[in-house]
Prior knowledge:
Blueprint: H1 2-5, E1 8-15, H2 22-30, E2 38-39, E3 47-54, E4 57-63, H3 73-88, E5 91-96, H4 104-114, E6 120-124, H5 135-143, E7 151-154, H6 163-173, H7 189-207, E8 216-225, E9 229-238, H8 241-248, H9 253-270, E10 273-282, H10 290-295
Parallel strand pairs: 1-4, 1-5, 5-6, 6-7, 9-10
Antiparallel strand pairs: 2-3, 3-4, 8-9
Helix pairs in contact: 7-9
Amino acid sequence: MEENTQKKSGFVTLVGRPNVGKSTLMNHLIGQKIAITSNKPQTTRNRIQTVYTDERGQIIFLDTPGIHKAKNKLGEYMVNVAEHTLKEVDLVLWLVEPSTFIGAGERHIAEQLSGVKTPVILVINKIDQVKKQEEILTFIDAYKDICPFAEIVPLSALKDRNTDLLLELIFKYLPYGPQFYDEDTVTDQPMRQIAAELIREKALRLLDDEIPHGIAVTIEKMKERKGGIMDIEASIICEKESHKGIIIGKGGGMLKKIGTEARREIEQMLEMRVNLQLWVKVRREWRDSELYMKNYGYDAKDV
């Protein structure tokens, strides 16, 4: 317990107009660790984007919807959610592009941020595009008075410049406390389990009583590629050759139907496009084999 209290843990939200490099920054901060999407425990409509854990503690990055401008009732509602989020988190990162021009969108965000007590770090991204480095001082000068910033950090997410400094500053403003998530939460494991469960659920529902509960699903591959598409390769495991034929269906029709329905739900969960490939494998009497059971994510005592 003592070790936990020496670590820091908290919620950080990223705000900024589209294309300022939020995703790029996130990818560089997280490295190869897979982003997870899940509900934040104990509160509102915030979505966890990613969880970063190192020896200093844990940062949970949240998405803040609709901070920009409200055009209708839904927009107003989203802005209210955003304002609530800004008050709930421990730290706000506001990403901007390197410019001395501050447009209406930026001024609106500044207005929102000025109304909260949460510390705000201004992140001036894309400094690799600045020809003369002394120009960076003019950008800092343009922004420094529109909001009471805790820190101002010029960086390049793309070139990985100053990202270590940003992490250092994030931890500086986070409270000490226990971690909200296990360290393995930053891996893709929870997502794999949920994806496997969704495929299994669709298979059982579509197959009715034709196949007894003797099917399992394993995820062989789950990897994001450029362009925001998640490639998933999964196997449906059954006990008999006759079952395999039923699962595949006439002309592959049943397997295609299972895949389509599962893909739709996985896409909703991940909030990105999914390329799902399904295979069917026969493992005779897998439910009687402890080795197979563990391999397919089942604990013998639960079945």
